[in-house]
Amino acid sequence: MSTDDSNTTFELSVELRSSDYYPDDDRWRSQVNAYQSELHGIVDTRVQSRPFTGSKGGVDELIVALGSAGAFTAAVESFRAWLSRDRGRRIEVRWDDDGVDHFVSLTGEAIDIDSVRAIAAAAAHRVGGSGWPDGTAHS
User: Fold this and answer.
1) Could you tell me the CATH number of the domain that includes residue 77?
2) Structural domain of residue 33, as residue ranges?
3) 85 inside domain
4) Are 62 and 39 in contact (CB under 8 A)?
5) Counting Cβ atoms within 10 Å, is residue 45 exposed (0-12), middle (13-18) or buried (19+)?
């Protein structure tokens, strides 16, 4: 799935990290690839690579396109489920809001409600709607 209409979608750059594995560890790559496939079945995604200092090749950056409150809810619930499987996991989320770069880090310890609220507000600003989608459970 992919989306090119930037007026009706909100894109998040998602980097999956672990305190237990190096980014180029085959075991970690397997977990990342499985999650990327899982998430792709839920919301619009694409993978792009960017250079990573001290590593062979690049780090895969997962771009998640959110075009509705339902897509946002699905992405947040997916993040929560993936993080809960291993406390050493972390999801670093970046987005651009009218030329201003924003960043939050979601961890396996808990998804901070203020971090999710910041993403929700930016997504709502871009695609319209409320800042907190109905049906999204607060952590």
Assistant:
1) 3.30.70
2) 10-127
3) yes
4) yes
5) buried
